[in-house]
Design a protein that fits this description.
alpha/beta, UDP N-Acetylglucosamine Acyltransferase, domain 1, nine-stranded parallel β-sheet, 7 helices
C-alpha cells in the first residue's frame, strides 16, 4: 500500500464564478466532489491520504470529517499560495518513505487508479494532448524524463505533465532547494526535473480518461464522461404517465418527471427535483438536486447545481450554479454565426474554448428576469440581477445589476 499526497490548496481562478465560495477540489461531478472521486479511487491502495488544503479549507474540513474514509485522511495546510512545490513541502512531516502525489482537482477514469497502484519505482505520468500550450510538457529519452517545458508558446502535440508522480522521502531535499519561478512560485516540476538529473524517473503515459477541469467547459465534459460511463442507472423517483424516458437515466429519491416531459439519456437527476410538465432534458443534462425545471423548459448538455431553477427557458452547454433562478423566456446562445470555436470572456482576456458549441456560466444566487438572452462564452458572477428583456454580452462581476447598458 502507498501513502498519497493530494494537492488541494488551489483557488480554481479559471473556474470563476463556480469557485467563488468553494475550493476547486470540491466542485462536483454527478453531485460528488472531485476530491471524493479521487479518495474513493485510491482507497484500496492507500494507507494514508494527506490532503494539502489552503483556499476555503473549511469546505474540505467538513467533507473530511463526514467521510467514511476519515480514518485515513490527514489534512495539512498551505497558509501561503506559493506554488505546488511549496504545497508538497507542507506534507513532509507526515511522510515516512516513498509516496505518490497527485492533483485533487483532476478527474480520472477508475482504471487510472489501478494503473497507478501497480507501478513501482520512481515515475511520473503524462497524457498525450494535441495542444500543449496550457500544460507543462515532458520530453523523454528511452522512456525516462530528460527535460521539462512549462506551457510552450507553440501549440503542438506532446506529453502533458499530470502532476502525478511516485517519489522517495529524499525528494524533499530538492524541494527545499527550489528558487521562485518567474511567476513567484516554487514549482513541483522544477524539483522533479532536478531529481531526474540524478535518478531514473520513468515517464508513463496514461491511456485512460483524464480531465484537468481547468475551465467550465472541461467540467461539462467531465460530467458527460461520468454520466456515460460511471453513472448508476436507477429510478428511485416518480415518472408520471405520459412522460417519455429514453436511454440511461439516474432518477433519485423524491424527484418526479411530470407528464409530457421528454428525457433523453444519459441524464442525471438528483434528489427532490421536479421536471416539467412538458420539459425536455437532452444529453447530457445533470441536475444535482432540489432543482425545478419548469413548463416547456429545454436543457441540453448542462450542469444545474443544487437548488438552481429554470422556468420556460432554453439552456445549452452551460453551468448554472446553486440558487439561480432563470426567469421565463431566458435563453442562452451556444453557437457563433461563423461556426468558429467560442471565446470565453474572462475579466482581463479572452480564452479560446476550442468548443464549437458552448454557452455560459451563471453564478450562484443570480436571478434573470423574463425574456433575457445570454451570449455564448459569457460569465455572470454571483448574486447578479439581470433585468427583463436584456441581452448579456459581456462578463458581469458579482452583485451586478444589469439593465443592458
Amino acid at each position: 500500500m502507498n501513502t498519497y499526497v493530494i494537492l488541494a490548496a488551489g483557488n480554481g481562478v479559471r473556474l470563476w464564478p463556480i469557485t467563488e465560495h468553494i475550493p476547486k477540489v470540491m466542485v462536483r461531478v454527478l453531485g460528488k466532489p472531485m476530491l471524493e472521486w479521487i479518495a474513493e479511487g485510491i482507497e484500496k491502495d492507500a494507507n494514508k491520504m494527506i490532503v494539502v488544503v489552503g483556499a476555503k479549507k473549511e469546505k474540505i474540513e467538513e467533507w473530511a470529517a463526514a467521510s467514511p474514509l476519515r480514518n485515513k485522511i490527514v489534512l495539512v495546510e498551505q497558509s501561503e499560495r506559493l506554488g505546488t512545490g511549496h504545497a508538497l513541502l507542507q506534507a513532509e512531516e507526515e511522510i515516512g518513505g516513498d509516496f505518490i502525489v497527485l492533483n485533487g482537482d483532476n478527474f480520472f477514469a477508475p482504471e487510472a487508479f489501478k494503473r497507478i497502484a501497480s507501478e513501482k519505482g520512481y515515475w511520473c505520468f503524462s497524457k498525450k494532448v494535441e495542444d500543449t500550450r496550457h500544460y507543462g510538457v515532458f520530453e523523454t529519452y528511452g522512456g525516462r524524463l530528460k527535460w521539462f517545458v512549462e506551457k510552450p508558446a507553440e501549440g503542438k502535440p506532446g506529453l502533458a505533465n499530470l502532476n502525478l508522480m511516485r517519489l522517495p522521502k529524499q525528494f524533499f531535499d530538492y524541494l527545499r532547494k527550489l528558487e521562485k519561478s518567474p511567476r513567484g512560485e516554487y514549482e513541483l516540476p522544477d524539483a522533479l526535473f532536478g531529481f531526474a538529473k540524478r535518478n531514473d524517473v520513468v515517464v508513463h503515459e496514461l491511456e485512460t480518461y483524464w480531465n484537468d477541469v481547468g475551465f467550465f467547459w472541461n467540467l461539462l465534459d467531465a460530467n458527460a464522461y461520468a454520466a456515460e460511463n460511471l453513472m448508476d442507472e436507477k429510478c428511485d423517483g416518480e415518472i408520471e404517465k405520459g412522460a417519455i424516458v429514453r436511454g440511461k437515466v439516474h432518477l433519485d429519491v423524491g424527484s418526479v418527471i411530470k407528464a409530457g416531459t421528454v428525457v433523453q439519456g444519459p441524464c442525471f437527476i438528483g434528489d427532490n427535483c421536479v421536471v416539467g410538465p412538458g420539459a425536455v432534458l437532452r444529453p447530457v443534462t445533470v441536475l444535482e438536486g432540489d432543482n425545478h425545471v419548469g413548463v416547456h423548459a429545454d436543457l441540453k448538455n448542462c450542469l444545474f447545481m443544487r437548488d438552481a431553477d429554470a422556468h420556460s427557458a432554453y439552456v445549452g452547454d452551460s453551468v448554472v450554479c446553486g440558487g439561480v433562478n432563470l426567469g421565463a423566456g431566458t435563453r442562452t446562445a451556444n453557437l457563433r454565426f461563423d461556426g468558429k470555436p467560442v471565446d470565453v470572456h474572462f475579466r482581463d482576456k479572452r480564452v479560446n474554448s476550442g468548443k464549437r458549441k458552448l454557452g455560459c456560466v451563471v453564478g450562484a444566487g443570480t436571478k434573470t428576469g423574463v425574456n433575457v438572452s445570454i451570449d455564448c462564452g459569457v460569465l455572470i458572477g454571483e448574486n447578479c440581477r439581470v433585468h427583463p428583456g436584456t441581452v448579456v454580452n459581456r462578463t458581469l462581476d458579482n452583485n451586478t445589476v444589469w439593465n443592458g447598458d
